[in-house]
Amino acid sequence: MKPEWQVWAKEAKEEFPRANSALMPLLHRIQLEEGWLSDATIADVAQLMGLPVQYVESVVSFYSLFHQQPVGKKVVHVCVGLSCALAGSDELMHHLEQRLGIKEGQTTADGAYTLLEAECLAACDKAPVAQVNLRFVGPISPEDATQLLSEEVPS
């Protein structure tokens, strides 16, 4: 366990006195620093917060913005909700898989991209929609996606 995590846990508990309320801010902060949440990290967070490991695991596995394995510099979520599916998100996903040489759920060998499905990104009026590092893009065509991949990641 990294020493700064103890400081961060204390800060989270001061802002959110109940451990289960402070959990997500702490997890987000650690993931921002580490890039993902390993099993060891989850166990450390559970200890810091005085929560069962299974509870912390359930929170991490429920929310799609927590990553339990390393992800690329660009994380691309393609919405597969009904509106996006009707507007061609399956073609968009197929195009991205072909362009990146990976399947959904995988990361490119160079660590540049991770391609993921999102059940619904709540932007049905812009279907099909994708997110790149939480930035919404839509409506997006396969051709637009090629351009998107070449853009620099905002800091």
**CATH architecture assignment of the largest domain:** 3-Layer(aba) Sandwich
Largest sheet: 4 strands, mixed
Helix content: 40-55%
Overall average pLDDT = 92
Unreliable residue runs: none
Structural domain count = 2
CATH topology of the largest domain: Glutaredoxin
The number of helical elements comes to: 7
Report the principal-axis shape.
elongated
Structural class: alpha+beta
According to DSSP, the number of beta strands is 4
Q: Could you tell me the radius of gyration in angstroms?
A: 17 Å
Distance between the termini: 27 Å
CATH class of the largest domain: Alpha Beta
CATH superfamily of the largest domain: Glutaredoxin
Strand order across the largest sheet:
2-1-3-4
Task: Estimate what percentage of residues fall within beta strands.
Answer: 5-15%
